[in-house]
Design brief:
By secondary structure, this protein is α+β, with helices and mostly antiparallel strands. The protein is built from eleven helices and nine strands. Bound molecules: flavin-adenine dinucleotide. The site of flavin-adenine dinucleotide has 22 residues, from strand 1, strand 3 and helix 11.
Length: about 400
Amino acid sequence: MYDPSPRTLEILPRLQAFMRQHVYPAERAYEAQLNAGPSRWVQPAIMEELKAKARAEGLWNLFMADPEFGPGLGNFEYAPLCEVMGRSPIAPETFNCSAPDVGNMEVLARYGSKTQQERWLKPLLEGRIRSIFAMTEPDVASSDATNIATRILRDGGNYVIDGRKWRSSNACHPHAGFAIVMGKTDPAAAKHKQQSMAIVPLDAPGVSLMRHLPVFGFDHAPYGHGEMLFRAVRVPAENLILGEGRGFEIAQGRLGLGRIHHCMRLIGLAERMLEAMLRRVRARVAFGRPLAERDTIRADIANSRCEIEQARLLVLHTARLIDRLGNKDARRQIAMIKIVVPNMAQRVIDRAIQAHGGAGMTGDFGRPHALAEARYLRIGDGPDEVHREAIAKLELKRALDPA
Ligand SMILES: Cc1cc2nc3c(=O)[nH]c(=O)nc-3n(C[C@H](O)[C@H](O)[C@H](O)COP(=O)(O)OP(=O)(O)OC[C@H]3O[C@@H](n4cnc5c(N)ncnc54)[C@H](O)[C@@H]3O)c2cc1C
């Protein structure tokens, strides 16, 4: 049932070879270039070299399901490829498949006008710019998106935007070109018709980056996450996506795919951490025996393997459902993977850290960074509790109204 498609089988070995030949060997050089630059907010030259090579080999925009704009792989076909990209922090950008650009590209491909696609989607697809998705706000509980309070007001041929956003990923990237901003066009409308989304160029007067926000102390340079102020920012009316009151509709389309991509990548990350753990415990001898011979370590290995496989199967199942039925009908499964996978990855990475002893705490092996990644995804794109609530609601409804 879960055999990869012929297209996946054709691309996967090429992608894996590219990772071995170019991406893993570039990880240290990338970090060294970041540290050697005038600041860490400069794009390392090696990233542009990697992008050019990946594009030349046709390993580019693999996420793009719309054949007009990319290879047209379904989610099920893309899952094993995305998982491989999750193995390295520099891989998603190498293949032009990184968040939040992927979600923004999908929004523009699916809902954007021809003008919006030409002006904003094209440079994103070519990897010339990066982008921001600005929904979360510091002043309101943003896991409930009906709270979003930024105003987007019509004024003649323009919209005027006022609000404060934060945790906006890519906000510090030197190539960041625009933000898709969510805000209220009509606070008096029905609850799910109040919000809209507008494209805001970052050089528009009134847009400012207030500060950079780290994640457990990691700066995530050169893209980072920022707090942003939008003060009387004017954009042409044609920058509104799809129309007034359609913000929720767009968010639902965007977040479903964003969530499953995060989960696919986390499975790859967990695999890499488990592999590192296996190497370490075979080589490290304590109290006269390799660590690999200790029952507790062996149990950790077995539990990690079971949990990764369970998570992968659920993600593949969800990917297939999305392909067949769409995001809406797969929302229960999307909520499930969003809980299951980051928690699984957190546990697997934590075991790998433990098995590395003091070395697991250093940046040398990338473990703390990986742990922060898994942990933040228990909040980013919706906290665990909100997804549990969604599942419970659907289950209770099913109990009342059985098929
Ligand atoms: C590294 C990182 C990157 C991010 N990138 C982006 C981005 O690019 N763009 C963007 O717009 N946002 C981004 N976010 C924001 C993220 O999506 C929000 O933090 C998240 O949706 C939660 O919103 P909040 O922070 O306002 O938490 P709140 O809504 O204040 O919730 C706080 C806590 O309350 C609890 N809670 C909430 N609802 C319920 C409930 N129904 N039942 C029980 N408990 C509940 C949960 O424990 C939750 O964690 C990012 C966040 C991080 C950490």
